[in-house]
Write a structure and sequence with these properties.
This protein is of the alpha+beta class. Helices cover 32% and strands 26% of the residues.
Length: 301
C-alpha cells in the first residue's frame, strides 16, 4: 500500500510474522493512529504524534513492547525504544530499561533533556524517575537461572517474536519523525539489545529523506543498518515502496531473517513493506484510514 499526499500522514506497526493480527490488535492499531493523527490535525509536530501513537501500543499489552514485553532468560522484562526528529536529526534511545511502562517517553527525555542519544539500564530508569515518568512494576520475576541454565535455554529452538511497535509521521510543516519500541525476543540472554534503540538500524528520520521504523529479526536488521539504508535510497529519489523492497530483499539475500518497515517522506509519500505473510499495521491521512493492511511483500508485483 503506497500513496502520495502533501498533507498529514501517520503510519504505525505492531510487528510482522506468519499469523494474522487479532481483532484486538487491530483495534489498538486504530487507537494509535487516532492518537497520533489528532496531534497532527491540531498542527502538532511529527515527533509528538509518533510518541503518542507508540505510547498507546506500549500500554495496550497486545504487542511485544511495554506492557506486553517478553522476559529475558533471567525472568526480568527489559525494554528498548528510540525516537528521532527528522527536522534536526535529534534522537534519543533507551536500552535494557526496567520498570517503566512507556520506554518511548524515556527515549524522548534522552533526546530533549540530555546531550546524549542512548542511555541503558538503571541509568535510563533514573532519568525516567527524574522527569516524573510513572514507574511500572511489571510481571513478577521468575526463578533466576545459573549461566549454565541460561545457555541451555538459549540453545532450545525458538520462534521469532516480531511484535515490536513503531510509528512514522509527516506533519503540516513537512517535517518527519519516527519512533520504535520493543520488548525483545523469546529466550534472550540478559542484556540482549535489538535494533529498536539503535539509530540507523530500527529507527531513522531525516526531512531530506524520510522516516523509517523497522520490525522483525533485530540481529539481521542491525547487521544491515536497514533504516538508514532505506533512508539513503529515499534521498536518492526512490519511492518508499521501492526503497523498502530493495532493502528487505537485500537483507534476505545477504543476511537472512524476516522484517517489515513503515516509511513516510516529507512530501507525504508512504509505504508499508514486509517479507513476512502479515504485518500488523495501519495508515491514516485525510480521507483515508487503513488498518491491519497486509502491505507489500517483497517480490509481489
Amino acid at each position: 500500500m503506497t500513496g502520495a499526499d502533501r498533507g498529514l500522514v501517520i503510519l504505525v506497526h505492531g510487528g510482522c510474522g506468519p499469523r494474522r493480527p487479532s481483532s484486538r490488535a487491530v483495534a489498538e492499531i486504530r487507537r494509535a493512529l487516532a492518537a497520533g493523527f489528532e496531534i497532527l490535525a491540531r498542527d502538532g509536530s511529527a515527533v509528538d504524534a509518533v510518541e503518542a501513537a507508540v505510547v498507546v501500543l506500549e500500554a495496550s499489552g497486545r504487542f511485544n513492547a511495554g506492557k506486553g514485553s517478553q522476559r529475558q532468560l533471567d525472568g526480568i522484562v527489559r525494554m528498548d525504544a528510540s525516537i528521532m526528529d527528522g527536522r534536526t536529526l535529534a534522537a534519543g534511545a533507551v536500552a535494557s530499561l526496567e520498570g517503566v511502562l512507556n520506554p518511548v517517553r524515556v527515549a524522548r527525555c534522552v533526546m530533549d533533556a540530555t546531550p546524549h542519544v542512548l542511555l541503558a539500564g538503571p541509568w535510563a530508569r533514573r532519568l525516567a524517575r527524574h522527569h516524573g515518568i510513572p514507574a511500572w512494576a511489571g510481571p513478577t520475576p521468575r526463578r533466576r537461572l545459573s549461566w549454565k541454565g541460561l545457555y541451555q535455554r538459549l540453545a532450545a529452538p525458538r520462534a521469532a517474536d516480531t511484535g515490536t511497535v513503531g510509528a512514522v509521521a509527516r506533519d503540516a510543516a513537512g517535517h518527519v519523525a519516527a519512533a520504535t519500541s520493543t520488548g525483545g525476543i523469546r529466550r534472550m540472554l540478559p542484556g540482549r539489545v535489538g535494533d529498536s534503540p539503535l539509530i540507523g538500524a530500527g529507527t531513522y528520520a531525516d526531512d531530506g529523506a524520510g522516516a523509517v521504523s523497522m520490525t522483525g529479526v533485530g540481529e539481521a536488521i542491525i547487521r544491515g543498518a536497514l533504516a538508514r539504508l532505506i533512508a539513503s535510497d529515499l534521498a536518492l529519489g526512490r519511492t518508499p515502496r521501492a526503497a523498502g523492497q530493495r532493502a528487505l530483499a537485500w537483507m534476505r539475500r545477504r543476511i537472512g531473517g524476516e522484517a517489515g518497515a513503515i516509511i513516510a517522506t516529507g512530501a507525504g509519500a508512504f509505504a508499508l513493506v514486509h517479507t513476512t505473510r502479515y504485518m500488523a499495521c495501519g495508515v491514516r491521512r485525510k480521507g483515508l484510514v487503513r488498518v491491519a493492511a497486509s502491505g507489500t511483500r517483497v517480490g509481489d508485483r
